[in-house]
Amino acid sequence: MLTKHLAQVLDTLNMKALLIWTVLLNIYKLLKTGDCTSTHDQVLSIHVTTHQQADIVRNISSQYETVLWSPASPEHIEADTEVHLFVPANNLGTVTDLLQTHHITHQVLLDNTEELIKMQTRNESSDPRSSVSYYERYHSLEDIYYWINRTAQEHPDMVKVILIGSSYEKRPLYVLKLSGRQERAEKRAMWIDCGIHAREWISPAFCLWFVQYSLNFYNLNNDITEMLNSMDIYVLPVMNPDGYKYTWTTNRMWRKNRSLSKESNCVGTDLNRNFDANWCTKGASNRPCDEIYCGQFPESEPEAEAVANFLRSHKDSVKLYLSIHSYGQMLLFPYSCSNEEVPNHAELFELVQEAAMKIRRYYRNNYKYGASAKTIYLAPGGSDDWAYNLGIHYSFTFELEDRGRYGFLLPPSFISKACNEALLALKSIALRVIQKTQPQP
Ligand code: 9B3
Ligand code: ZN
Ligand code: ZN
User: Fold this and answer.
1) What is the best residue among 331, 336, 369, 401 to mutate for testing ligand 1's pocket, by most ligand atoms within 8 Å of CB?
2) Domains and CATH numbers, the chain
3) What is the pLDDT of residues 142-160, one digit of tens each?
4) What confidence tens digit (pLDDT) does each residue in 170-183 have?
5) Nearest-ligand number for the alpha carbon of 397
6) Dist CA 333 CA 348 (whole Å)
7) Handedness of CA 315, 320, 326, 332 (dihedral sign)
8) Distance 252 CA to ligand 2 centre (A)
């Protein structure tokens, strides 16, 4: 009898404790995430409808400590654009107040970006039994240098490492040259660069993925075998090592390289505005503090100069140029620097259309495609336009996943899908280019 009573009392006490506990937990959660202001850095998706709203959002993005994710520069914010803006916690209140005052609708795209960043940089050896492969994780610059070496050592018959120059901070720029074991006279070549923009982490991840896939499936997969037998493939896994390093150590949102400017305290040039293609006209900036700063003169940056020099000295063999960026899911071709159509516009259009169709069919994912200036924005000084004008008439820029759900902070679990679909597009285009550039006997 007594014990039963005691048990009942204890039970009610337990219930009460549980109740109090839940209430406290909820209050804590409310305080932590907050309904109006978060204690986290956020990414906002802002729907700009009118010209006046465009002016206001442009001002917010340039006057407050924020980072514009999309479009790349405030000048591309017009009526009818969706803007993705990274806002540090300390500015969230001010920014959202301003948006509300001007009746600009917005939603939170990402809350707690700190957690996502942590997820992306988690120590790889944390769980040795994890089923996730090396290629389904992001890697630090040191890791990537180590990987380049190891890959070359493990495949001495198919891989050569070429030093094409060094970065502003004197880091080496290594290119992997992949070749099939078949010797053919007058071998054609293709070029792929990744990591022009530091924060686009999926891009170097793709280069690593591509190299690994090519080496593993040579003589197993017909497409890869045909590609490597017909073409040497030059792969530059990280074109902007200084910037990439900086995104791992200091600022995950960094885009440019890390060169010091003579005229200002701002750091970095946009390497994809530094090439000699209508250099520094509309769509680029001559102000060193801007994200799309074009640099002091064309190829003023050692990274751009190294790539340009290499391609100039290989321009007769290189038939296909490909530059990997993110995000937005687009397959682009020249021009970006002008609204003019290139002479083989229809041919290039067909190639990206077919590639996008395959991605849709096999991965149920939509990629936009077309000439850059019309598909994304007018922008001069890009590597693809420059390569095209050099004579590489199959020249492309891929913008990989996603469409803005995670943007630059694409979680590692998405790497394999993003890379597989890009690989499908690459194979589709490369095999067509191999047919089209068959040497005449
Ligand atoms: C820009 C240019 Cl200038 C080009 N030639 N091709 C593609 C783009 C888009 C990328 C950029 O540099 O802004 C997207 Se991250
Ligand atoms: Zn980019
Ligand atoms: Zn981009």
Assistant:
1) 336
2) 42-115 (3.30.70.340), 135-437 (3.40.630.10)
3) 999 999 999 999 999 999 9
4) 999 999 999 998 88
5) 1
6) 7
7) positive
8) 14
